[in-house]
Amino acid sequence: MNKRKKIDYLDEISTFCKVSSTVTSTLELEEVLDLITRSACQVVKTHACTLRFINEERDELDIASSVYGLSLEYRKKGPVKIKDSIAEQVIKGKKPQAVLDVLKDPRYKHPNFAKKAHLKSLLSVPLIAKNKVLGVLNVYSTRLRHFSKRDEKILMLFASEAAIAIENAKLVRKLQDAYLNTLKVLGAIVDAFDWHTERQSEKVRDYALAIAKKMNL
């Protein structure tokens, strides 16, 4: 490995560490998703990124959960059928798929939009957590680009970190929902027993605060 390649390699590792740290620094799901798509472009130096989750009941990829570098028009694009798509190979093989020119690949489902947005090359990787594919992460280049095996490895590593961050954020959201439901139940109990004394109200308040503290809310 020559000096130039060593510098590039170290730069890639440094960028990867920085963006991975950023993605795992928050537990708000929407913020996590936005950080993932923005950071993915930094990791492999691309122009745009989309993230879609799998809808197992319909065998399709849901409407894009997060988009970076593309117009709002893309967010309005509907679900994508997995069958006979690029995502099908990514999901089934749990491996990356690189496409040199999406306009010439019949598996790509939005050629008209790609042409309008000047999208050329695509690298798609699975989001895997606990050996289960949650969805796909796609990065796009606006010029023809042969994504290297190193690009694939780096984006796969990043996607692994991203999937863990997504699962953690989803867990926190579930805990928050459970906390709110608990408060509703407590409120119903208070109403049912018609407890109006200050002492009982304080007990309910203290109980709710204790739950919130346990959940870091």
Explain this structure.
The protein has 2 domains: 3-170, Beta-Lactamase (2-Layer Sandwich); 173-214. The mean pLDDT is 82. It has helices at residues 3-23, 29-44, 72-75, 86-93, 111-116, 149-193, 198-214; strands at residues 48-55, 60-61, 66-68, 80-81, 97-99, 121-129, 132-141. β1 and β2 form a beta hairpin. Strands 1, 2, 3, 4, 5, 6 and 7 form a 7-stranded antiparallel sheet that branches. It has 217 residues and is α+β, with helices and mostly antiparallel strands. α1 (3-23) runs parallel beside α6.
Overall CATH class of the largest domain:
Alpha Beta
CATH architecture classification name of the largest domain = 2-Layer Sandwich
Work out the count of structural domains. 2
Q: How far apart lie the N and C ends?
A: 49 Å
Principal-axis shape equals: elongated
What is the CATH superfamily classification of the largest domain?
Answer: GAF domain
CATH topology title of the largest domain: Beta-Lactamase
* Overall average pLDDT: 82
Structure in a nutshell:
This protein folds into 2 domains: 3-170, GAF domain (Beta-Lactamase); 173-214.
Name some characteristics of this structure.
alpha+beta; 217 residues; seven-stranded antiparallel β-sheet; GAF-like_dom_sf; GAF domain-containing protein
Provide the fold topology.
Elements: H1 3-23, H2 29-44, E1 48-55, E2 60-61, E3 66-68, H3 72-75, E4 80-81, H4 86-93, E5 97-99, H5 111-116, E6 121-129, E7 132-141, H6 149-193, H7 198-214
Antiparallel strand pairs: 1-2, 1-3, 1-7, 2-4, 5-6, 6-7
Helix pairs in contact: 1-2, 1-6, 2-6, 6-7
